UniProtKB/TrEMBL annotation:
Organism lineage string: Bacteria, Bacillati, Bacillota, Clostridia, Eubacteriales
Gene Ontology CC entries for this record: cytosol
GO biological process: protein maturation
Protein name: FdhE protein
Domain of life: Bacteria
Organism: Desulforamulus aeronauticus DSM 10349
Length: 277
């Protein structure tokens, strides 16, 4: 019952986010790759690292604050959103607000600065940012895809934002594997065998957990890095929304973690596994 309550609250949270994302002026921007940036992307650098969009930080902060309020309302996130935390955001100067947004809108591996006025527990700012930036990154991804050939990308990390995949699906008549990034909702092709997290090519296809009554689901395991990847077989169930599938398969997370494996894109703010109680 507790698990179902958590899933419902997270679902209600995402429904509110969809309403908050409508007609946002900060989504107005353009992206254009030059020949050097195209070359960098083809060599394996994520688009966000080489051609970040010029974001309107003040507008993004307003949306960021609204998402923080939604986290408080639905009690989602790695830690509760407190009134003290919201007050700290409200009291930031315009310059501090912009610095916070620009710092959080970062590529993996780059540090960000947190104003001392904000009393934020580990992972909370990142969780809010990941949800607040999603509509921006989705639009950015669409712009990037109009300029590059996504079929040429074979890396284990997202070609748009550089994050690690959240889930995977087996699709098409041949059952090829596509990885999915929850941060920007991008899909891309990856080899059927092998671990996208540690790039271990010798991982056996037989190394997975399957559930007889739900043949569309399986969990691929990597014994080298001890991480797992939930996977949906669309040949069994038809086309799916992977964000919804992630919410619907929390039981698979529990099974894999009980066996000693860690979620592949593990972060303090991992979307489906952090619901405050």
């Amino acid at each position: 019952m507790e698990t179902m309550d958590r899933i419902k609250r997270l679902a209600d949270f995402y429904l509110e986010l969809m309403d908050l994302e409508k007609d946002k002026p900060f989504l107005e921007f353009t992206v254009s790759f030059d020949s050097e940036q195209m070359q960098q992307w083809s060599q394996g650098q994520a688009a966000l690292a080489i051609a970040p969009p010029e974001i309107e930080a003040a507008g993004v902060f307003t949306h960021f604050y609204s998402v923080a309020k939604a986290c408080q309302r639905w009690q989602v996130g790695p830690k509760p959103v407190t009134e003290e935390f919201l007050k700290g955001l409200e009291e930031l100067s315009q310059g501090q607000r912009e610095e916070l947004i620009v710092s959080l809108f970062r590529v993996k591996g780059k540090n960000f600065k947190v104003p001392e006025e904000i009393k934020a527990p580990s992972g909370l700012l990142e969780f809010i940012a990941a949800n607040a930036f999603k509509p921006l990154l989705k639009k950015y991804g669409d712009m990037v895809l109009s300029q590059v050939k996504i079929s040429n990308w074979r890396k284990g990390y997202c070609p748009i934002c550089g994050d690690q995949p959240t889930l995977a699906k087996l699709t098409g008549k041949d059952g090829h594997r596509e990885l999915y990034c929850e941060r920007c909702e991008m899909n891309w092709h990856f080899e059927r065998l092998g671990c996208p997290y540690c790039e271990e090519e010798g991982a056996s296809e037989a190394s997975f957990i399957a559930i007889d009554e739900n043949k569309q689901y399986r969990v691929y395991l990597c014994d080298k890095c001890k991480r797992y990847l939930k996977t949906v077989d669309e040949r069994e169930c038809g086309e799916v929304d992977l964000l919804c599938e992630d919410l619907a398969t929390t039981a698979l997370d529990e099974i894999a973690q009980a066996e000693g494996y860690q979620r592949g894109n593990h972060k303090d703010y991992c979307f489906s596994g952090v619901i405050t109680r």
